[in-house]
C-alpha cells in the first residue's frame, strides 16, 4: 500500500493514559505516554512487568480505548482492531487449531479481504518458505513445536503486509536457545523488507538486539523513562558503560537492584 | 558450606558420531501395530463378553431367566426375517430423530442467547441446574396430559432429555474459546457472524461434540424407557414396546434380542457416527478433551 510520504510519523502516540478494570479496582496501566514510530522502524517497548507495555500495544491494536490522549496511524485515529495493524501474540494458541499451517495464513488473507482465494495460496506458500516451514505447510499446529508455531504466526502476520507489525513478547514462551535463533531469523526476515515493527519485550538483551529505537517504560503506572537509539549490539558508550548497563540503570534507578546494596 | 574451591579439571571436547548407531528409529512390529488399534482390542472384548454370556447361560440352563447368546441371536434373526424387529426399530429411530432434532434446535437458540448476553447466560445456567437433574421420564405423565397419547408427548420428553445436555456443553465450550483466538478474529476484521462461524463454533466444537454425544445417549435411553412404561401411548409399537410385549408372552430370548438391538444401535452410533466425526475433527486438530 503506497503511503504518502508526508514526513510525519507512521504511528503517533500522544499523551496516552490507559486504565483497565479488574473485579475490585481500576488500574492505571500507562500514564501520558507519548512516542513516534517512523516507517521502517524496529521500535521496541521495554519495561519491567507491570509497566503496561502489553496494554499499550493492545490499545494500539484497537482492543482498548485510551481514557486520555490519542493514537494515530498515518494520521488517522485508531478506532478498533483492523488488518492494517497485525498482531503476533505471545501465546501459541493464536493459530487456529482446526486449520493447517497454509490454511491459517490463507484464512487471514481472505477473512480480512486482503486477497482472493487464488492469490492467498501463492502468498501463503511464499511466506511459509521464508520461515523455513515448507515441509510442514500441510501440518496442523498441534504437531509443531513452540518455535515453529511462532514462525507460522510471524509468517501469517508478514503475509498480511500490514502498515505496522505489533509483536507482543512473541518469543517470551520459548526456551532460551530457540529464542536466540528466532531473534536472528526475525532480523533476517525484516532485513529484506520495509516493514515497520513495534516489539514489546521485558528482556534487555532482546531489546538491544532487535530495536533500532528503544522506549523505556517505568512501572506502576507506565511512564516514558527514556527513548534511546539501538545500535544493534551491546555497544560501549563514551563514558565506558555498556548499553545494557545504561538501560538497567535507567529502569531501576532509585531502587535497590541487588542483595549487596545495603540501604 | 565448606570454604575451599572445587579442584581444577581439564576441559573436554569430543567429536560426536554421525552414523553407525544400532537403532535411531525402527518401525514397530506388525503384532504391536494391530494391538494398537482400539477397534481390534474392543472387538476382542466383545467376543469375550459373548463367550462369557454363552457359558454362564448354559451352566444356568434356565432359558426363562437367562437365555443363551446363541438362542438370543436365533430369536433376533427370526424377528428380523419376520420384519417385526426392523419395523419397531425403525419406528423408534424416527421418533428419536424427531426429538433429537427438535432438542438441538432449541439448544442452538438457547446457547446463542446465552453467549450473546449476560442475562441469557444466567438464564441458561439457572434452567439447566433446575431441569437437568430431573429425569425426563418423570415428565411423561404430565406430557401425556398436555399432548395426548401420540408422538407429541414422547417428543416433548425427548426434547427435555437432549436440550440441557447439549446447551450446557455448547455454552461452556463457547466460553472456553481462548481470548487470544477472539483477538485474532477481530484483528483480521471478521464480522460478528464471521467470528461465530469461523472462530467460535470450531473453537467450541470439542465441547459441542461432547454435548451431542451425551444428548444422544440421554434421548436413546429416555425413549426406550418411555416405550417400556407407556408403550401403547405412541400408538404402534417401538423397540421398548416390543421388549415389553415379548416379556408378557414369556418369549425371553426375544426380550434379550430386543435389548441387544438397543445395545447394538448404541455401539453403532457411538463408534461409526460420533467416533468418525471426532477423528476427522477434534482428533486431527489435536483438540481432544
Any idea what the radius of gyration of chain B is? 28 Å
Describe the strand arrangement of the main beta sheet of chain A, using strand numbers. 6-7-8-3-9-10
The oligomeric state of the chains shown is heterodimer
Estimate the mean pLDDT confidence of chain A.
Answer: 83
Average pLDDT rating of chain B: 86
Output the helix-strand order of chain B.
Answer: HHHHHHHHHHH
CATH class of chain B: Mainly Alpha
Number of strands of chain B: 0
Tell me the β content of chain B: under 5%
Q: Which consecutive residue ranges of chain B, at least 5 long each, have pLDDT under 50? A: none
Termini gap of chain B: 49 Å
The biggest sheet of chain A amounts to:
6 strands, mixed
Largest interface: A-B, 27 and 21 residues
What is the helix/strand order of chain A? EEEHEEEHHHEHEHEEH
| Number of helical regions of chain B | 11
Q: What shape does the CA trace of chain A take?
A: globular
Question: Beta-strand percentage of chain A?
Answer: 15-25%
Low-confidence stretches of chain A: 256-263
